Amino acid sequence: MSFGFLPGDGQPDFEALLKQFSEMGIDSETISDAKSFIENMQSSSTTTNQNLITHSVLRDIARKIIATKGDLPIGVSDQDQLAQSLAIANTWLDTEILFPASTLSSNSAWSKGTWLDESLSSWQSLIEPLATGMADALAKVVTNPDTSLPAELAGVSDHSPEQQEAMKQMVAKLLRSFMGTLIANQLGQGVGLLANSITSANDVAIPLLKPESGPHLIPQNIQEWSDGLGIEKTEVNLYLALREVAASRLFSKNTWLHTYLTDAITTYGKGITIDVDSITRQAEEAMSSGQIDINNPQSINIALNSGLFTPQQTPAQELALTKLEMALALIEGWIDHVVSAVASERIPSFNALIENSRRRRATNSPMQQLFASLLGLEVSPRKMREASAFWNEVKNLRGADGRDKCWEDPAFLPMPKDLADVKAFLDSVTVPDDLSGLI
C-alpha cells in the first residue's frame, strides 16, 4: 500500500508528504513554513536564490521575544541625555584612536525594535551560510543512491526507481526547509534575547549596521543594566557611550570585518557532514535503554539533539572557528583597551563599570549563547583579556596609530599562538622601510 506521495504522473505530491510529516509529530508552524518555502522555491521567480532564513520569519520570532519584556518609546529627555554622552565620548576618543568619528544622528537613542530592524539583514546574511551548510549536508544523505527512505515515508517497495528518486528529492526539499526553519528559530530567539539586553547598537561587538549608521544607545536596557550598581547615571551613560562610539568607529572604517566573519561561517558551514553511523548507533542505544520510544513522534527532536552532525571537525572548519573566535576576541579586547585608555582616570566608578561589563559578558551573554548553540563556539573571558593585553602591548611598541593600523588587513591580526610574543608577531607582518637588506 502506498502513502500516495506520487500521483498518477509520478511527480511528488507535497501535500501528502506534508500531511505524513504532520502525523509524525512535526509541529504545525514548521509544516506551514516548509510548505511556504517549497511553494516559493517552485515558483518561476524564486527558483535559484531562495533563502533558508527569511527576514519575515526572523523578525517575527525576535519580536515575540522582545514583547516578553516590552519595548518602551524613546522620550525627548533620553535623546538629549544620550546625545550629550555620545558627544563627550567622541571627544575623548579623538585623542586615542585613528578612526574618524561619524556624524552623530539626531536619534542618538534607539528602541529595541529599531535596533532589530536595522540589524536584521546583517544577521540573515551572517548566519545563512551556516543554515545552507547544514541543509546541504542533510539533503546529501537523503539523495545518496545508497540511502533508503524510512518505511514510514516510502510505504511498500512497489515504486519504480524514478518514483523513488522523485520521493528522495521531495524529502530533501522538505528537510532543507525544516533545517532553515530550525536555524531561523534559533537565530530569531537569540537576536530577540540580544535586543532585550544590549545597551547600544554595536554592543554585540559584531559589525551589523551600515557604515554610516553611527553610534546609538538603548535607554531601556541601560536602565536595567545599571540597576543595583549604585553608580551615577551620568557615569553609566558615558561609559556605555564610550564603548558604543569605539565600536562604531572601528566598524565604519573597517568594512571588511563583516565579510571576514561571514567567510569564516561559510567555510564552517561547507564542512558540515551527517554522521549516519553515529545516528544509527545512538538511536539503537537509546531505544535499547528505553530513552527513545519508537512510537513517540517527537523522537526526531531527540535525534537532532543527539549528534546529528559529526563532532569531528575538518581542519578547514577548525581554522575557520579559530579565526572567528580570534576576531571576536580582538574586537572586544580593542574596545575595552581604548575605553580604558581614555576613561580609567576620568570616570570615578570606571573599575566597577568595566568589571560589571566583563562579568555580564562572561556569565549571561546572549551573544555567547547564540554562537555556542549555532557553532559550538564560545569566546572565553580569558581570550578577551589576552586580546586586550595584546592591544596594550602593540600600543607600547608602535603607538596608538600603529595599533589601529593593524585593522587595515586581516593579515595584520594575530592568531592565538601570536599573543605570547607581540613583538615577534609585529616584526613578522611589517615590511621594513629600507628593503636594501633583502636584495
Task: Provide a concise account of the structure shown.
The protein is mostly helical and 439 residues long. The protein contains 17 helices and no strands. Residues 1-12, 44-48, 303-310 and 435-439 have low confidence and may be disordered.
Q: What does it look like?
A:
This protein is an all-alpha fold. Among the domains are: 24-41 and 48-73 and 110-196, no CATH class; 275-308. It contains 17 helices and no strands. The protein has helices at residues 14-23, 28-42, 55-67, 76-94, 112-143, 151-154, 161-195, 219-226, 233-253, 256-270, 276-289, 299-304, 315-343, 350-363, 366-375, 381-404, 422-428. Helix 2 packs across helix 7 (161-195), helix 4 crosses helix 9 (233-253) and helix 7 packs antiparallel against helix 15 (366-375). The longest helix has 35 residues, at 161-195. The termini are far apart.
Q: Any low-confidence stretches, pLDDT <50, length ≥5?
A: 1-12, 44-48, 303-310, 435-439
Morphology call = globular
Tally of strands = 0
Rg for CA atoms: 25 Å
Report how far the terminal alpha carbons are from each other: 80 Å
H and E order: HHHHHHHHHHHHHHHHH
| Helix content class | 55-70%
Quaternary assembly: single chain
Query: Per DSSP, what share of the residues sits in E-state strands of 2 or more residues?
Result: under 5%
Structural class by secondary-structure content: mainly alpha
The biggest beta sheet reads: none
What is the number of helical segments per DSSP (H or I, 4+ residues)?
A: 17
Average per-residue pLDDT, rounded, comes to: 81
